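Handout, section B. The chain below has 275 residues.
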Amino acid sequence: MTSTVLITGASSGFGLASATLFLARGWNVIATMRSPRPALFDAGDRLLVTALDVTDPTSIDNAVSEGIARFGQIDVLVNNAGVGLFGALEATADEVIRQVFETNTFGVMATTRAIVAHLRERGSGTIVNVTSSVTIAPMPLVAAYAASKSAIEGFSESLAHELLPFGVRVRIVEPGLAPSTSFAANSNHSADALIPAAYAAFAERYLGSMREYPTAYTTGEDVADAVYAAATDQGDRLRWPAGADSAMLAELRQSLSEQAFMARMRAMFGGAPVR
């Protein structure tokens, strides 16, 4: 029987690249997005494009039910949908932070919860949660975003133990920086409005240092490859850094003392103390 994957946030970036790869590998694909755009894909019997808003429980349940009705079962869930946020914490309103958590954290939990019983009753399946390299090396000016993704790391590791007795695996894919994706476009808030004057010099220095990033940025194909590998791996591996920069940060975090790692990150991010 052909395996089936449901991918959230499949209209662009990592989700679109992942859906395209799974289709190319012969899978049934349920490509979900808030506003369905079937024209993004070559139509075929193995593709279902349908609406799913991770902040709407009814939308989640409808998409899962539609996918099961179409293909008989779902073998893999890829929680990819997310929003970005760039700005200083002190300029970021509580409402804005909650909006980020609604999608990046609570949306992942809600979509996962909607499919767990289906996987558990079948005794097999995999949940792949897409987080970020900021969970490995949190960068400045993305504190709320880093928190929303780091919460999913803890959630995923705990859930991996919880679901293992039922034959269900949980995986984490950690994409690096990907300027070509819609991270900025998926943020509903202007970065300029969230950078107070007191932070302007630091933000300019920081963004300048990012233009001299010490390795290649992550591509959609990098993430799609990692998502596919995580979804099909039969071992016990939990985390899958995606992209050369994410792999570099993971290696640094593992190989350096905390003091040395923090010094390396401060140098990379241009974080000299303000006098």
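Note. The two ends are 65 Å apart (CA to CA). Compare this with the example in section A.
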